Amino acid sequence: MKIVTWNINGYRSVTGQNPSKRYDKVSNDNKLFAYITQEQPDIICLQETKADESQINEELRAPEGYFSYYNSCKETKGYSGVVTFTKVKPKKVNMELGEKRFDDEGRLIELEFEKFTHFNIYFPKGYAESERLTYKLEFYDKLFEHIKKPKNKKKKIIISGDLNTAHKEIDLARPGENIMTSGFMPVERVKLDWMVENGFIDTFREFIKENGHYSWWSQRGRARDHNVGWRIDYHFISDNLKANLVNTYYQPLVMGSDHCPVVLELNI
Questions:
Q1: What is the CATH number of the domain that holds 31?
Q2: What is the tens place of the pLDDT at every residue in 196-217?
Q3: What span, in angstroms and rounded, lies between the C-alpha atoms of 71 and 104?
Q4: CA distance linking residue 167 with residue 145, whole number of Å
Q5: Fewest Cβ atoms closer than 10 Å to its Cβ: which of 12, 105, 131, 175?
Q6: 162 is catalytic
Q7: Rounded CA gap, 259 and 89, in Å?
Q8: What is the 3-state composition of the chain as percent helix, strand, coil, each rounded to the nearest 5?
Q9: Number of domains within the chain
């Protein structure tokens, strides 16, 4: 089974409904569907869609052969949002953590399948010394409270998405410069410690131990060309899936967003 997570930074841009621009080149190509056609993932989860389903042209709402599930921001159009496409129809769908201030921003899609439960999550950004940093940390806590329920029942769990936090120094190109930048502050990184301590595996680090592997690059100063990035997009699995883990890898050469896709492969 192949599962992909990708923060696309705008569904309408990555599908060509709206023109996208990289440096001085403007494109109307449907980069998302071309990628899906090539890779054929069983599940692909997208974050930062910035669109309600009604704002998307009908022919672009889902690739052929996939069930689609949208959760969009209820307060502000063009903000946040997640989408999951899956070849196999889930038994159950949930899009709520049970707290309005989190649920209104459209950050969660939980799909329950026969053999595992999959979470597509777009974690909030934080800003140092701001209420959004508090919001981000409290979102983590609410999510962990929610995930504990299936974890305590020994269910197999996959968490995919943009966590908006680099966990260790090897997970960003310039850790020393960013120790007090939101996304790498100790108060944020400890939340990823919690995941590891509570039996979740950062699948990529099961295979690759060195730095230089990132999933997001600033759009300033040609950071991507120089690989000055951050690893903030992840697949975590519960420890009872470790024997099923085949591989996890990043695809930095895939364009269409300031993030790149991250691929998880499992025997399941």
A1: 3.60.10.10
A2: 999 999 999 999 999 999 999 9
A3: 9
A4: 20
A5: 131
A6: yes
A7: 27
A8: 25, 25, 45
A9: 1
